Amino acid sequence: MKALLALEDGRIFEGETFGALGETSGEVVFNTGMSGYQEILTDPSYHRQIVTMTYPLIGNTGVNSEDEESEKPQAAGFVIKEPSRIPSNFRCRKSLNEYLDESGMVAISGIDTRALTRHIRSAGAMRGIISNKTGSPEELVKKARNVAPIKGLDMVAEVTRKQKTEFNEGLWQLGQGFAQKQQPRQLPGETTVKGIHVAALDLGIKRNILRHLGQRAGRVTILPASSSAEEILALKPDGLFLSNGPGDPDAAPYVRETVRALIGKLPIFGICLGHQILCLSLGAKTFKMKFGHRGINHPVMDIESGGVVRITSQNHGFAVDEDSLPEELELTHYSLNDRTVEGVRHKEFPVFSVQYHPEASPGPHDTTGHFDRFIKQMENGGG
């Protein structure tokens, strides 16, 4: 069945229906990863976005329940060149097409994703519509222009959980699945066991972040994004984690105010949107990027390590303005592609953050040491 992708600037791409029947809208972006499509589709950071995969063949390994980063697909739509008709993997439970159809996600295949990506790189990420319903291209372009822009839209409130919950999983191991809750860690020289308790603010959190925390900490409590500083401190956590999430960090001022009130009171670690909000809470500014960073092979300069280059997984359309960084924040990482800010640390308190995704899923595991650093800060009582 014929399907169309219409962009707000009038560009039309014609392809075939993939996934569910219907129509969907969102900001059209691209991801350069060769694998990890299921983790990408279920990452809450892609909320209200239509994701284009630049790799030409998608769906080779099918879909399984263990690779989901949230409880359901979160992207608004999916764009691929060629779907794999015969998925093959020992964990495969269904095809990508079946998965999209069952979840109600509208997608399109058979288009020149390289041409679409080049167009987005030139013109910037823009609003679009995927439709396999009847209707003229001109009508779809008009609809695309009426889609709510990402900038200024509070999408954190749309993806965060509504209630406090406990998380009890560790990392996945071959033949064993996900580890259950780890035993509380014991500090060297201590005779009693001290359970490290992490409070994780859910701005659109990925499960693999929680698994890394759960693997290392005795207890992980996930909190709604609207939680106040008083509510967080009442839990008596050893540290606060600020998660990834979708959209404009400046559109969630309530989170910024909460973080500002907790700096100096708890060790804090932020990833992606959490990094941006941490910087905003200390007076920095953010801006919308032309087409963002989305992929699993982005090189980052690690200044703290003396100039080691880290290969990272990234997914963001906003960035922190380096010139606006306050005096108390020190730049620790920057992108080797465009020199944008990729990491900071507080000069006085145990507070740090990174723009990229050390938890991977998908992507390399080069930077998982950030979780160990956070745990160590909490073990040392914030030192």
User: Taking strands numbered 1, 2, ... along the chain, how are they ordered across the largest sheet?
Assistant: 10-14-13-15-16-21-20-19-17-18
Low-confidence sequence ranges: 182-193
How much beta, percentage-wise?
A: 25-35%
**Total number of strands:** 21
Gyration radius, rounded: 21 Å
The major pleated sheet works out as: 10 strands, mixed
Number of H- or I-type helical stretches: 10
Give the structural class: alpha/beta
The backbone outline, from C-alpha atoms, is globular
Query: How far is the N terminus from the C terminus?
Result: 61 Å
Helix content: 10-25%
What is the residue-averaged pLDDT? 94
Quick rundown:
This protein is of the alpha/beta class and 383 residues long. It has helices spanning 37-41, 96-103, 113-123, 137-145, 156-159, 207-216, 229-234, 253-262, 273-281, 369-379; strands at residues 2-7, 12-19, 23-31, 49-53, 57-58, 77-79, 82-83, 106-109, 126-131, 165-167, 169-173, 177-180, 197-202, 219-224, 239-242, 268-271, 286-302, 308-320, 329-335, 341-346, 351-354.
How would you explain this protein's 3D organization?
There is one protein chain. α8 packs across α9 (273-281). The protein is α/β, with parallel strands linked by helices and 383 residues long. The strands form four sheets. It has a ten-stranded mixed beta sheet with strand order 10-14-13-15-16-21-20-19-17-18, sandwiched between helices. The chain has a seven-stranded mixed barrel with strand order 1-2-8-6-4-3-9. It has a two-stranded parallel sheet with strand order 5-7. The longest helix has 11 residues, at 113-123. β3, α1 and β4 (49-53) form a beta-alpha-beta unit. The model is unreliable at 182-193 (pLDDT under 50). The chain is globular. It has helices spanning 37-41, 96-103, 113-123, 137-145, 156-159, 207-216, 229-234, 253-262, 273-281, 369-379; strands at 2-7, 12-19, 23-31, 49-53, 57-58, 77-79, 82-83, 106-109, 126-131, 165-167, 169-173, 177-180, 197-202, 219-224, 239-242, 268-271, 286-302, 308-320, 329-335, 341-346, 351-354.
